[in-house]
Design brief:
By secondary structure, the chain is an alpha/beta fold. The chain contains 14 helices and 15 strands. Strand 11 and strand 12 form a beta hairpin.
Length: about 425
């Protein structure tokens, strides 16, 4: 009994969780990935391809593992495998029209996700404000809060398209006055995501110049999440904000091999920017993950080497992938439009947002519910129709969540068979609705 009473006393009663974790323990992906795994026959939810990466990339990884260079099984340089940072510096130097130093202007991370985490931890202090454009990739908000910062939201506002045309992601725009009103002396950074997840919006040069002018005027940083930089459609141009006047010095560019080469599980990402910013990211990196998987970095380096030589040519994977995905986008747009789930045609990315208003009659409204309607709709749809998607309200925070709760996000980076199966579900659903 003496032992028992000791063990009762030994139980911890003081709170164990760090204050910075309070209120950010919920994560939409944990919930929806689990639902999709349990119920879905067709998963257009989480953003990953269900087709393989290109052969040349898989061969490079196999070669790295089974080849003569046994050092590829050991640590490499902590801030990036030398062959990878060299080709990234060459490649992005060409795209940005400047000389990049591979040792100081590039850092490799565990996917773009860790790159984001490093940025917020390295730059944001208690009380700093960070401007986030809604809808936003959902991790920006908790990551800002974990660093002690305050997220400040500004929404893209949709304008109705003319004469019954489908809406495009280009119809969602920042209000310049509203945007300018969010900048003040506490503002430390703005997060830009172009092409944008979830809308697929590709910010135009004019929109980026508006943001750049405000950054320069208020002397703030830009964290530019460009993981979908190659996935741009209809001949649109991806403009890099770091190439605009006054922006190189204050921008960290974030990229992803997962999105670039359709290998999201490899978790190789990078940051590109001036040494005066990247040195602080290196401090974060060396005190958290320290190092990323060597063989994956070697394979990605070889992939970029190939793409550097084929840049802009029809054989380039970057050219082929965006062509292929544009076709998949068009299929999904057609099949959603045919059943009345109005798609917003994306200019880039893997994603397409659709308006579910015409399907509301199928999913009863629960008055006074805390849960946004689109979230209940998406859960109902995966359980009853076997089709998984993500509610758009997950990409909003605070006051705007309620205004954008009749949209859901689909991922179309999928095999033809997957998209066809989704189309079959939608067609049958529509027939069930209309048949007496």
């Amino acid at each position: 009994s003496h032992f028992l009473s000791l063990s009762v006393q030994a139980k911890m009663s003081r709170p164990v969780q760090a204050r910075r974790l309070e209120g950010i323990d919920k994560n939409i992906w944990v919930e929806f990935v689990k639902l999709a795994a349990t119920y879905s026959t067709v998963n257009l939810g989480q953003g990953f391809p269900d087709f393989p990466p290109p052969d040349f990339l898989k061969e490079a990884f196999v070669g790295a593992l089974s080849g003569e260079n046994h050092m590829l099984h050991q640590y490499t340089r902590a801030f990036g495998h030398p062959p990878l940072v060299k080709i990234l510096a060459q490649f992005f130097g060409k795209l940005l029209g400047r000389d990049l130093d591979p040792m100081t202007d590039v850092m490799v991370t565990v996917g773009a996700y860790q790159a984001l985490f490093c940025c917020f931890q390295a730059f944001v202090d208690e009380g700093d404000e960070v401007i986030i454009i809604e809808p936003f990739f959902d991790c920006y908000e908790p990551m800002v809060k974990m660093a002690g910062g305050t997220p400040v939201f500004v929404p893209l506002r949709p304008k109705a398209p003319k004469d019954g045309k489908l809406m495009s992601s280009a119809d969602w725009q920042l209000d310049p006055t509203e945007l300018a009103s969010k900048f003040n002396k506490r503002t430390k950074a703005i997060v830009l995501n172009s092409p944008n997840n979830p809308l697929g919006k590709v910010f135009s040069r004019g929109e980026l110049e508006l943001i750049a002018d405000l950054c320069v005027k208020h002397d703030i940083l830009c964290i530019s999440d460009e993981v979908y930089e190659w996935l741009v459609y209809d001949g649109k141009e991806h403009v890099r904000i770091a190439s605009l006047q006054g922006m190189w010095d204050r921008t960290v560019i974030i990229g992803s091999a997962g999105k670039t080469f359709s290998a999201t599980g490899w978790k190789v990402g990078w940051t590109v920017g001036p040494n005066r910013l990247l040195r602080h990211l290196r401090t974060m990196h060396q005190n958290s993950v320290y190092h990323c998987a060597t063989a994956a970095q070697e394979a990605v380096a070889q992939g970029f080497q190939r793409e550097f030589e084929l840049y802009g040519k029809p054989d380039s994977y970057f050219v082929q992938l965006s062509k292929e995905l544009q076709q998949k986008r068009d299929w999904l747009v057609q099949s959603l439009d045919a059943v009345g789930m109005k798609p917003i045609v994306p200019e880039g990315t893997y994603f397409l947002v659709a308006d579910i208003s015409e399907f509301k009659s199928d999913v009863p409204d629960v008055p006074d519910s805390d849960e946004p309607y689109d979230s209940r709709f998406a859960k109902w749809m995966v359980k009853n129709k076997g089709l998984a998607a993500i509610p758009l309200s997950a990409f909003y925070c605070g006051p705007h969540k309620k205004n954008y709760n009749h949209f859901i996000r689909f991922c179309f980076a999928k095999e033809e068979a997957t998209l066809k199966a989704a189309n079959d579900i939608l067609q049958k659903w529509k027939q069930d609705k209309t048949s007496p």
